[in-house]
Every structure is written in structure tokens, then in C-alpha cells.
What does this fold into?
Amino acid sequence: MPEITFSDHMAICETKARYCRTLDSKDWDGYADVFTEDFLLDTEPAGGYKVQGRDEAIRMIRGSVERAKTSHQIHSPEIQFHGDSADVVWAMQDRVVWPEERAKKMGNWGHTGYGQYREHYVRCKDGRWRIKRQQLTRFHVDVHLHPPHG
It folds into this structure.
């Protein structure tokens, strides 16, 4: 079993930072690279869906937020290493602002959610840490009924 170092801790934090940056900038290739091919996405606790496979998960996420303005923030990682894998809980906040046509369909202009990501990371053959499983839970959601200012 390899020795876990502070650089492993930082590499996981950088993977999650890249997750937020590439999702919010709609860099779909960069976003896909933070996940394993057999990635499992579970947003059921937040009122969503469960999807198996990186490509299908990216397709679903992209279809949902590609035209939306988003801002994802994560902090306070709790990381438990298990050799070449790790379980991580992140506090999170996400802001989503729908484009006008989607807002009409949804009946609101977006939301700000507060909750947690519970994730399982693995060290891949190329030495990089990637997300293998992700569960999103929201403890509170502010729904925005009016168009954003600015």
C-alpha cells in the first residue's frame, strides 16, 4: 500500500477545485477528466437522479446546465484515505441562474443550494486522483422567483 502524503491531500483538493472551475466555465473535456470512466453520480438525495458512467453523467449534467450561469463553491474537506482510494465529504454551495426560456419552463429563475458532496476518489494509473462516486445532498435550497439583477 503506498504511503499517503500531504501532496495526496492537496491533489484531491485540486481535483475538486478543477471540478468546480470546469463545470462553471463549461469546459466539458476538462470536467470529464476529473471522473473515472465508471463514475457513479447520485443526486437522488437532492431530488435528482442516479446515473452510471462518466459519459452519461456528463451528458445529463451538460443538458441541464450548459446554458445556465453557475457558481459552485466547496470547502472544509474531510478526507479519509484507504491506500489508493479516499472518501471525502465537502461542504458545498451552488448557485444556478437559468436562461429565460428555461426559467419559463421551470417556473423559477434558478436556485442557491446548500449541502454536501460525499465522494469516493481513486488514484488512477496515471497517478492522478479522480472521482469514482459522487452523492449530492442539499440541506436547504433558496428558489429564485425573480430574474437576477445585473
The chain is about 30% helix and 45% strand. The chain has one domain: 6-144. The mean pLDDT is 96.
